[in-house]
TrEMBL record:
Segments forming domain Aminoacyl-transfer RNA synthetases class-II family profile: 132-422
UniProt-recorded name of the protein: Asparagine--tRNA ligase
CDD domains the UniProt entry points to: AsxRS_core
Sorted UniProt keywords: Aminoacyl-tRNA synthetase, ATP-binding, Cytoplasm, Ligase, Nucleotide-binding, Protein biosynthesis
Family as reported in the entry's similarity comment: Belongs to the class-II aminoacyl-tRNA synthetase family.
Top enzyme category: ligase
Biological source species: Mesotoga prima MesG1.Ag.4.2
Length: 432
């Protein structure tokens, strides 16, 4: 008997196949039982007709409970009205396990705390599998984008002795005889070293921030894709970000359009994403916010609500550039014409999804970099290797980091970032 994945059943019309999976739901109308099966690749309706199977098979089907593991043998039929265009007429059912307990996730209105407590089981629902597949396609497109353009993948370390962003939200650990070490907030500093060796590099991995903010955009552990390019200036950097985001949106629409629609995403908004993106300066952003009634002045941070207000002015992601240097990280290159601002940009997603990219040109002058490290209260000694990059053939260079869960939340249209990662780590949750 041929084993077939549910996603491939369209190629097996009028054939007898075996499906190895689980029972998601069951509905019965006396002489017919409808089994809604899943196997990871997809979902399909299987029909058990009392009149066409042995009584024992009908009884077995009747005894099934939600999330029973089973192997179903049946005939694949084309059925226009069914999702995926097929259904299965059951001939036999082999049971691996019928759970003794009722599956906890069994109604449409569980509280979010209950769902998160049961995240390991919640993952089995159709919506969650579709979100995970959207994330998968997004990450695939990210890797593809760089690989097709001659970038080299450089995996940056998780443990580090040199703080990459700011001292405010690091996870500190005791690292043997070395003393204090930190979980990476970013791989950027290491990517800068790699860019001096390889020219164009990228990474993709987990990063950690002890953020006290409990918002729908913040995770404690999140995945970041970063890119770093030698000889790139501020404008080259923005162009690369626009190309990346456009590529990822386009490929995800192409490959995961069905999943996007199934989780309720209005894809017409995404179809409009094309380069170039609108660009405004921090100065202009402040003026815009004041005009909209926000109590904000030059030098203030642009928070979540402000980001949403700015992004709502545009159809596409908006690039906000040249922030005051005091608000940004120590390594950012000053604007030569206005040293009080830096050559950085934040890309804000439309529809209130916030900052998806943080970027800048890097300081390549050793003396200025030392001055900034001290000014930001960081330990210069721990940056000896980073300063070496400025001693041996230093060049202008730029790069950025894109938050994977932010991009997933935006593209999939999720209300909260916790759904964008398989097992979210938030302020109050590390279990399961
Ligand atoms: O803007 P950030 O802090 O930039 C950096 O870490 C740079 N070192 C990157 C670089 O230039 N190589 O973070 C980059 C992105 C943000 O734009 C946001 O999308 C995401 O990472 N991000 C978070 N996502 C989820 N939860 C959090 N707590 C996040 N903090 C940042
Ligand atoms: Mg940022």
């Amino acid at each position: 008997m041929k084993v077939a994945e549910i996603s491939s059943l369209g190629k097996h019309i009028n054939e007898h196949v075996q499906i190895r999976g689980w029972l998601r739901r069951k509905r019965s109308s006396g002489k017919i039982q409808f089994l809604f099966l899943r196997d990871g690749s997809g979902f399909v309706q299987a029909i058990v007709e009392k009149s066409s199977v042995p009584e024992s098979v009908f009884q077995v089907a009747a005894s099934l409970k939600m999330e029973s593991s089973l192997i179903v043998t049946g005939l694949v039929k084309a059925e226009e009205r069914a999702p995926g265009g097929v259904e299965v007429l059951v001939e036999d059912v082999e049971i691996l396990q019928i759970p003794e307990k009722d599956f906890p996730i069994n109604k449409p209105d569980h509280s979010i705390d209950f769902l998160m407590d049961n995240r390991h089981l919640w993952l089995r629902t159709q919506r969650q599998t579709h979100v995970l597949k959207i994330r998968h396609e997004i990450i695939r497109a990210v890797r593809e984008f760089y690989n097709d353009r001659g970038f080299v993948l450089v995996d940056t370390p998780i443990f580090t002795g040199s703080i990459g962003e700011s001292a405010g939200n690091t996870f500190e650990i005791d690292y043997f005889d070395y003393g204090k070490a930190y979980l990476a907030q970013t791989g950027q500093l290491y990517l800068e070293a790699a860019a001096m060796a390889l020219g164009k590099v990228y990474n993709l991995g987990p990063t950690f921030r002890a953020e006290k903010s409990k918002t729908r955009r913040h995770l404690i552990e999140f995945w970041m894709n970063e890119a770093e390019v030698a000889y790139y200036g501020h404008d080259d950097n923005i162009k690369l970000q626009e190309d990346l985001v456009t590529y990822v949106v386009k490929k995800t629409l192409e490959r995961a359009g069905e999943y996007l629609r199934s989780v309720g995403r209005d894809t017409s908004r995404l179809e409009k994403i094309e380069t170039p993106f609108p660009r405004i300066t921090y100065d202009e952003a402040i003026k815009l916010l004041v005009k909209k009634g926000f109590d904000i002045k030059w030098g203030d941070d642009i928070g979540g609500d402000e980001e949403t207000a700015i992004a709502n002015e545009f159809e596409k992601p908006v690039v906000v550039e040249r922030y005051p240097r005091m608000m940004k990280a120590f390594y950012m290159q000053p604007d030569p014409e206005r040293p009080e601002v830096v050559l950085c940009d934040d890309m804000l997603a439309p529809e209130g999804y916030g900052e998806i990219i943080g970027a800048s040109e890097r300081i390549h002058d050793r003396d200025l970099l030392v001055e900034r490290i001290q000014e930001y209260g960081l330990d210069v000694e721990s940056y000896d290797w980073y300063l070496d990059l400025r001693d041996y053939g230093t060049v202008p260079h730029s790069g950025f980091g894109m938050g994977i869960e932010r991009i997933v939340a935006w593209i999939a249209g999720l209300e909260h970032i916790r759904e964008a990662i398989p097992f979210a780590r938030t302020l109050y949750r590390i279990h399961p």
